[in-house]
Amino acid sequence: QVQLVESGGGLVQAGVSLRLSCAASGRTSSPWAMGWFRQAAGKEREFVAAISRGGSTTSGADSVKGRFTISKDNAKNTVYLQMSSLKPEDTAVYYCAASDIHCVGYGCYKGAGEYGYWGQGTQVTVSS
pLDDT digits over 107-126, tens only? Predict the structure, then answer.
C-alpha cells in the first residue's frame, strides 16, 4: 500500500507561482510512476503531469506545458508540481497518484486508470 498526502494548495492571483508537494509513504519499493491530475468543478479529472520512478522521464498535458514542471526527490519520497504563470482556468482540486504499472513508450501514465493510489487532493484557486 502507498499513502499519498498532498500539500501546498491555496488561493492565489493569476500570474503567480505555486508549488504542490506529494509525500509518499507506506512501503519501501517505489511506484513505477507518479502523476498529478486535477479536477475542476463539474468537469472530469484530467491528466496534468507524470514522472518516472527514477525521475528521468516526464510528461505533461499540453495545457500546462511551459508553465508546470514535475519533479521528485527520491530521498524524501516526495513529488512536486511547480506551477507558474497560473491562470483562472487552472483552478481545480489537484490530486497526486502513484502507479504500479510498468509502461514504456509515448502515452504512458496519462490515464487515471493506470494509477492505483490517490491522495485526498489539494485545492488550488486562481483569481483573476
Answer: 899 999 999 999 999 999 99
